[in-house]
Input
Amino acid sequence: MVVLVALVLGLVVLVPALILLAAISIHLRLSLPRLDGSVTVIGLGRPLTIERDAMGVPTIRAESAMDAAYGLGFVHGQDRLFQMEALRRYASGRLSELFGPGEEGQLIDLDRRVRTLGLHGVATRAVSALPESQRERLRNYVDGVNAGVASLSAYPFEFGLLRSKPEAWKSEDSLLVVLALYLDLQGDNPPLESAVGLVHDLLPRGLAEFLTPEENPDWDAPLYGASSPVPPVPGPEVFDLRDRPEPSRDLISPNHIERLVAGSNAWAVAGSRSEHGGAIVANDMHLFLRVPNTWYRARIEWGDAQQEDGPRSAVGVSIPGGPGIVVGSNGDVAWGFTNTQGDWCDLVELEVDPGDPSRYRTPEGWAEFDRSEEIVRVKGGADLPLVVERTIWGPVFDVDHLGRKRVMRWTAFDPEGVHLGIMELAETRTLGDLLDRANLGGVPHLNCVAADGDGNVGWTVMGRIPRRVGLDGRRPTSWADGTRRWDGYFPAAENPRVVKPADGLIWNGNGRSVLGPDLSRVGHGPYDRGARGRQIRDSLLVLERATEQDMLNLQRDDRALFLGRWRTLMVETLNEPALSEDPRRSGPARLVEAWDGRATADSEGYGLVREFRLRVVRDSLSPLLAACRDADPGFRLTRLGTLEGPAWSLVTERPPHLLDPRFPSWDHFLLSILDEMIGGAADGRAQGRTWGEMNTLAIGHPLAAAIPLIGRFLNMPAVAMGGAWTDMPFIQGPDYGASERMVVSPGREDEGIFHMPCGQSGHPFSPFYRAGHDDWVRGLPSPLLPGPAEHTLRLIPDPASGPTS
Output
């Protein structure tokens, strides 16, 4: 009887699951895009063809750049519709409307923060401000997206699972995609500025300056400019831990000490330093990795020999939702990007009228808050009202530790900051023209690294730079009296720039590209430590006859040079007396001494040294920042982003007045950390666990967990990886790393190399869903240009309707 009941109950569960799986399978097959034949479409000017190779990479052949934008929109709509839906909802604060509240209400919290910024209104205004050439390109792209969606027999399966239908794509949605990049790439600016402000509010000046240095001369590798002196270790007259109550321990996980910089690697080698005489651009953009990938590969060809400008082409990556090639090469120029990590927003402390909280002080006197009510809709839950207060500087963003309201002033709110100029870079002919267009911006501020067909290389800051008056932007201040403000933007022609450097090299790894006066202009943002950029620079300097393969090898360089001095400190700490005192210390000592200095998947030494450094940073700095944690429970060391210099100064100079009083000496402090690691061996971090076990790929589809039995097959395979989360060219984490790798010499695209995780298609039944992913994992060189056409689809304009408006 028990067996029978169990069988019946099993069928009750299994049969609905099988029915659901069958329905999903049918839906998946219906939603596969059409790849061959012809489709009559609305809004296209002249016929075009879309060829796809064995990887699913399209070559779009059109008679004009505007028709090519239509074709790109069509394939985006076919292959990446759900991704585009998620992007526009992310930037407009509408994710919980589609997905529900999320775990512990995280999506609601995210929607509330984003809705406060009012980015949907920013996008709508940005469309109206676009120059006519960009509006025309955008109209064609939007028509193409909607035609691509209309060509599907069913919407992508994600919409069925969520019981939702996509809205028609609109022009402002493409600007929301640009704003989604702002959120991802510049989201670290406000937390850094807030944390620096808190440190300077609560700690003695000498200690605050020591903990928040503006530069990192041990590792900075700028293109030009000299370092300034770093603040010294403060003396006991400034701050003495021995005279203070015992600080509470910061229990944050060591892994949370390391801040992931939303960044990338990019460099360029002039023709004078390459084997074939052509300049080479290498770019790998580091982002969180999801299924499908952020980027969409494409080759676009437009025009013909009869036209004055002749036939044109560009190959590289686009972003679903955007009407052009973002990074790539067009035969004349090649270009790539990294995040500048500059300071592009400021927190303004409001002076609210104590007698009337509806007013705040401005340089012109008291002003009323502009209040509006937003509605955050939550799938499966009640709608949530949200009151947003806006000021002349921007929206009220948060409240600080003293209860002061703060406003966010951001370049993303201005027409200068949001447009589609990046999509026109593929049409430039010269290095100078490309850099000039880059200076006009329209996207989050980027380091633009470029080369031309004559062998020249160059760099500039992409984006308009705000002209700060009366402030450096490092910490929140009041703008009420008018002495601190933004006075518009510097002319684009005044952006920092390097062209044809004497050594023939350009490099960046999200560190400070410049020092001196130009650093003050770009701002003191959440820069990478600089070790990655320095390793890239030094590696390039010893290459005399560089090849594309050399560039790929450097992109996957797993030498942990940054940890060299920490390894030495660990070995010196595990000396003979220390090993005699506790034999358990001998195991880690042997592993560290035998370590080859690389972050390989089978390494045990790398993880040990990395863990040692993180714990030393945490435990040496936490007592000095106890007042900040007491004032703001959300304060974390990682918010500062300047931990390496102060921590290394402490463990090398070893000032007794800045040592946690629980320890009689710095030697005892360091040994206690090692003993703590050994005592915690059960968590695998002390010994017996390889780095690959800790660094195993977990690139997942956002809805994988929602599909019984087969959901996990939507994810990419779990593979133990080398590389590291920070401080070396080969950046790789479980779900973070190179979202693409490109190596190309303009005019030699057929020799170019390209990698991308996941695959071209977002459809799990498509043969292109994982195509190319294995090459990315293994680092095998694969071609930049698409291969021979295996599918050809022709788009034919509907004769009954011209292009739509």
